[in-house]
Design brief:
Length: 137
């Protein structure tokens, strides 16, 4: 498994009048953690795009468990259990300051050739980066 953790505080603008994080922000938290994970293992999304492949979201599931609040320091995780071929499956979770699970889900990413706009396989540098980090945790 490839595993990554990203930490940041809840920002005021992410909350409603009751100091609760708006549900839409969890999707942004997932994205920040995914991008951070790719940077950590040496193949950031910008490099993938330079190599001619975009990574659109195919599907996204998010289950809300407990509200994150203003003042929380969040831990957002991203993990990959299988080496991708045509799609990349990433499990994600958000935890509050006390370690309580606030949200969990899965994002499925596809790969498109920038030149043709057609589906393509996972770029080899990304496959190698994921394989090199399998067993991290």
């Amino acid at each position: 498994m490839v595993y990554s953790e990203t930490f940041f505080p809840v920002r005021y603008y992410e909350t409603d009048q009751m100091g609760i994080v708006h549900h839409s922000n969890y999707i942004r938290y997932f994205e920040c953690a995914r991008n951070n994970m790719m940077r950590e293992f040496g193949y950031p999304i910008e490099k993938c795009e330079e190599d001619g492949v975009t990574i659109p979201i195919v599907s996204l599931r998010c289950n809300y468990r407990h509200p994150a609040m203003m003042g929380d320091d969040l831990k957002v995780t991203a993990s990959i259990e299988t080496v991708p071929m045509a799609k990349l499956f990433i499990k994600q979770a958000v935890f509050n300051s006390e370690g309580t699970l606030c949200a969990e889900g899965e994002v499925v990413l596809g790969f498109l050739s920038k030149a043709t706009g057609h589906p393509t396989r996972c770029p080899e540098p990304l496959v190698k980066a994921i394989e090199a980090h399998m067993g991290d945790r």
